[in-house]
Amino acid sequence: MHIKEAQQIVDKWIKDYGVRYFSELTNMAMLTEEVGEVARIIARRYGEQSEKESDKNKDLGDEMADVLFVLICLANQTGVDLEKALEKNLAKKTKRDKERHLKNEKLTPYIKVSCSLYDKLETLASLRKPTTITYKKQGKETTTNAVIKTLKTTSQKEEFLVLEDNTTIRLDFITSIEGEKIETQYC
User: What CATH number labels 115-181?
Assistant: First the structure.
């Protein structure tokens, strides 16, 4: 089914069964409500919260379809051709983001660092003395001389050091400590 066809099918459904479209404001509120239902399922099923017994049988696809239905209603009401709008939006994103995501360090898979590097950083953190650290930041090498406050690990097992000014540096982006080049990054 094409998006244009989906807009026609929803319009026919509204005329045959829905009597009329709700106001745009009502549909906007309904869209927010439906997105909230999708968010609840995703947060509990894929996030850290436990899923309530009453939510375990909820169909995520059905809830997403509710979002799509109300969005299509809004598009029909406001004269938006969603198919053309999506094509235009994808062209904009492609032009704007052609390289952006490929260069985004946050999207770069984390590579475990050597145990010796981790141990060295823990020792430097315990000494509380300024340390010269060179690391990659947005594709360029940056050097700082700062006190390491702590090391932390995220729930995704990415490891960071935190400086006293709260700057965080991902460990696999470190290229040298005190002028000593970091060669191997594995543990």
Answer: 2.30.30
What is the 3-state secondary structure of 39-69? HHHHHHHHCCCCCCHHHCCCCHHHHHHHHHH
CATH number, domain 3-97, options 1.10.8.60, 3.40.190.170, 1.10.287.1080, 3.40.190.10: 1.10.287.1080
Who has greater pLDDT, 39 or 100?
Answer: 39
As a whole number of angstroms, the distance between CA 121 and CA 14 comes to 63
- In this structure, the number of other CB atoms found within 10 A of the CB of residue 18 comes to 13
Residue 38: its pLDDT value, please?
Answer: 97
Structure tokens at 13: 């459904």
Collect all residues with Cβ–Cβ distance below 8 Å to 143 and sequence separation of at least 6: 132, 133, 134
DSSP category for residue 170: E
Query: At 39, is the pLDDT very low, low, confident or very high (cuts 50, 70, 90)?
Result: very high
pTM of the model: 0.68
